[in-house]
Fold these 2 entries.
Entry 1:
Amino acid sequence: MTFVDDLLWRGLIQDSTDLVELRKKLDGGSITFYVGFDPTAASLHVGHLMQVCTARRLQLAGHRPLLLVGGATGQIGDPRESSERSLNPPEVVEGWVQRIRTQLSPFVTYDGDNAATLVNNLDWTGPMSVVDFLRDVGKHFPVNKMLARDVVRNRLESGISFTEFSYQLLQSNDFYQLHVQHGCELQFGGSDQWGNITAGVDFVRRRGAGPVNAFVTPLVLKSDGTKFGKTEGGAVWLDPSMTTPYSFYQFWINSDDRDVNQYLRYFSFKSREELEELEKATAERPQARLAQRALAEELTALVHGPEEARQAIAASQALFGRGSLDELSADTLRAALSEAGLHGVRGELPTVGVLLKDAGLVASANEARRTITEGGAYLNNERITDGEAEIPTSALLHGRFLVLRRGKRTFAGVELLP
């Protein structure tokens, strides 16, 4: 199976400018490609993983990545269906550029014959005068074609600024500049960028350069209709200070059975044979959630490192009594307990019965006593037999945490506050 055949099997090519030519390029030797990321927040999120992992996949196949962080386009904003974007101050965007550059580092290598290069479109867009932009770029774009773009057409009645209208020109010029400066022959992105990307291919041709090629990956959607990458707490970020490694792991471990096999094809670097074997094993034992575990472990290790992945796995097991709580770091333990519900206590610790109620595991003191009597209450994975007993400070994990559990799967945390 060729590399392009593998991309097609994984569902990673939704549309391409010329599939025959794409095969010649990607299966015929090493080429330079680019994919862009606009800094519209302080971190990339899991919605960006499709492009990040595809870039890694292309590099592993011998191709050279140009990872573009949009210091210029990030200040403009691609038009949205609903309304005009709020423009962020340049200094804020520049700070985000630096953070995103760091986040991209684990996915590619910057060494070897096909070493990745980080580029910023502000480097060539910033020095360009208005006259240069209008003559060298704007001259090549028929307005009627730009108006035909769905997102622009849908905004005509409510209004769209020239700023957002011109975004397509800036992105197209990026492809031309990277082709001239770095020999870039291919751009890819999400399917929502198809209009911008094909405009760039056409612009390179109009400038007398090329030929160049492009393809787009599908948008990732959930089977239940909700948006991929969103949880009740908001977006799932790649920055560990915004989404903890434990929460990141839990996002993938909770993947719907209807979605997980496709997620594995999109994001995993296991071979087709390995994935088909995993799909079969998951179908035979769905309750074991083998696919979800494989996906969560691989992506957490890729984004946050093997040790954080090990901690997340250990926490998932230990909190339900299948491992040692003592092995968990303070950060991992707090992240896990915060997700379940973390009750803060100042001063002396109350009895276990009181804590069960205060932490929300039971509704009343009577229910706490009944749960303890029936053997269904646990403190740090040890069954509680006396709800009125005092809790020694030696029981505190890392000197400040307790793990309470009711039954097999319902747990909450307690934190002793200063």
Entry 2:
Amino acid sequence: MQRHQAPFRADVVGSFLRPDAIKNARQQFAQGEITAAQLRSVEDEAIRHVVEQQCACGLHVVTDGEFRRAWWHFDFFDGLEGVERYDSDKGIQFNGVQTKAHGVRVIGKLRFGDHPMLEDFRYLKSISGNAQPKMTIPSPSVLHFRGGRKDIDATVYPQLDAYFDDLATTWHDAIHAFYAAGCRYLQLDDTVWAYLCSDDQRRQIRERGDNPDELARIYARVINKALEGKPDDLTIGLHVCRGNFRSTWISEGGYEPVAEVLFGSVNVDAFFLEYDNDRSGDFAPLRFVRPGKQQVVLGLITTKNGELENPEGVKARLAEAANYVDINQICLSPQCGFASTEEGNSLTPEQQWDKVRLVTNIAEQVW
């Protein structure tokens, strides 16, 4: 069964490798050699080209590649009222490599406000042609998880209940603002659910005084509250990511520890799930996906390297997953974006597009 609405049988997570034109323009802007308007003009042209490339690969969905961002999440947080970015003591530790030392903290009442990424989406929509433009933003749980209580001003939010209420309201307002801007396909990117699957991360959560199972229930409530009143013609997906920085990762472990709460109670329209290697576990947790209610977009094609997967092997894994969830509730995508940060993963642009074409070719054969 083909799908003519989001998520599509062949879909993408969002980010693409930054072209040299963007890298050079960003450096020139940082050095004061070009203006913000000139930088945006370079970005506009690069985004127009990446949209054309996605369509040429057979996709019916397009993103802006996250070309205007340095990070998949911090740039969005920067645009929220009540949030401040700061230079932290150390970066985020991945498997053998560390990111730049940035963090965010809540210093005032959370509000969505007049967010600059609304205009970013409007531009994408204006050039998307017959393809479905998809906007990607971080999930609300991401803003809370990494810093927790210590990065939330206690004079602003003495009690975390009020903070979580405002967190949900902020994303509720974001959802409706993007809808008003013409968005009908929105993706929430979320590393936290994967951390809650990891024995090591769960240990660290307990050591800082939190209960990982209680956090799962809190985050499910926050997301569901944000989704209240969602327009029927707006598709919202949740991408669960185990970390993606220069082809490295953070967490490992199957979805079983969170499956019943995540798949059984979070009211998104689609789950984008990483399943590109053994770190992701087996398909058994998919038994909690509600029949007929939601789509499961399986990330069976890795973005961590350029080696192409065997199409027959991917088809076999799709058939295996169908033992736990109806094949007509399954779609296919790369496991993550190709450049969750501006540094990008360790593969070439040509290998990137070969991966995307592999997704569309397999989807066409299976469905």
